[in-house]
Amino acid sequence: MKPMIFRVTNWYVLVSHLVDIYKDIRALMRDPDLKDQFLQKKIDRLNAIERVKIVWDEDNTALFKEMQGLSLPRALEFFERQIVVAISTYIELVLKEFFSLVFKQNPERMYNYVNLDEARKGYINVKQVLRASTIDEILDELAEQAAAPSRAESSRPI
Question: What is the mean pLDDT of residues 64-88?
């Protein structure tokens, strides 16, 4: 059987890192000097492409920076939405790991979650049992199955 350790520090570091990235990007977007440097580098990259011949007078440069400046907040909004998705995924994975460990340490608690059909609650497929080479292996597999996010629909207490 695998070691039964809930990796709370691992999850904390992952979520904290994601939040720190967001804070850094947000700070960069709100700093006018850094924003201007970023936009100037974009102009320089465009100038480096030989096929693009743009005359970068003051009007063109100002217009380009204004248009690109409008896309930066949209990029931040997009990233903010993705942060929500990423954190939701982390929460789902944290809960799955946590309940998997609970079920591995207390197999009797997974009875209500192995099969959600009321008439077949707690029943498992014989093929699943026969595939396992040890009791620990089948208990690990059943704990993972019981902890799956789709099992969260059941409101029965653990």
Answer: 82
